[in-house]
Amino acid sequence: MSVERYGNSAWASTARIMTRNSDGTLHYYFVKLSELPPGLSAGFIDMRSQIVTGELAGPRVLGEFSAMLELYKTMPSIVPTPRGPGKCLDSDDYFFLCDYVVIDHRQPDPVKLAERVAALHHISVSPTGQFGFHVTPYDGKLPLVAKWESNWVSFYRKLLEGVYKLDIQVNGHW
């Protein structure tokens, strides 16, 4: 088994984990950690100020896992297999684990991308028949307002209003 720094995140340390299955084949995972893991590359040191810790780390990790799981259940071809969130045993840090996939950094075909996004929205089904999400999702460090609403316009207005209020808190009025 090995662990190596991999990728970038504005709120977490990220790494690729290599494991060996019982049949001898290799399997790779991608992990986001809410804190700098001991013994990992010193390249993480400069990211310490951006990493989310404390009482908000757990909800952020749960939000990301929950969103990824819903995407996977709806359209598994568009996201890596989410394996689970958790709390580290020896610290107050949290992690999110999914299968590792090689990322193609080329621009996607815009028509195919639009078709996949449209398909995702067409086949997804709300568990409540409303617009929203059952846990608070985050945009990096910022919580998004995603409480259940009976109509899309009301949901979207509250989502944007929440983002606007957070922006004012962080950046002040322009």
Low-confidence stretches: 40-50
Q: What is the helix tally?
A: 3
Helix proportion range: 25-40%
Q: What would the average pLDDT be, to the nearest integer?
A: 86
**Largest sheet composition:** 5 strands, antiparallel
Named at the architecture level, the CATH assignment of the largest domain is 2-Layer Sandwich
Number of domains: 2
Radius of gyration, taken over Cα atoms and rounded to an integer in Å: 18 Å
The SS-based structural class is alpha+beta
The oligomerization state is single chain
Strand order of the largest sheet: 1-2-3-5-4
Count of distinct strands: 7
The CATH C-level name of the largest domain is Alpha Beta
- SSE topology string: EEEHEEHEEH
Distance between the termini: 50 Å
Overall spatial form: globular
- The portion of residues forming beta strands comes to 15-25%
Protein name: Fructosamine kinase
Keywords: Kinase, Transferase
GO molecular function: kinase activity
InterPro entries: Fructo-/Ketosamine-3-kinase (IPR016477)
Task: Describe the protein's architecture and organization.
With 174 residues, this protein is of the alpha+beta class. It folds into two domains: 2-104, Phosphorylase Kinase, domain 1; 126-174, no CATH class. It has helices at residues 57-74, 110-123, 152-171, and strands at 2-5, 13-20, 26-33, 82-87, 94-99, 138-139, 142-143. A hairpin with a 2-residue loop joins β6 (138-139) and β7 (142-143). The radius of gyration is 18 Å and the shape is globular. Mean pLDDT is 86; it is low at 40-50. This is Fructosamine kinase. Keywords: Kinase, Transferase. InterPro entries: Fructo-/Ketosamine-3-kinase (IPR016477). It comes from Aspergillus sclerotialis. GO terms for molecular function: kinase activity.
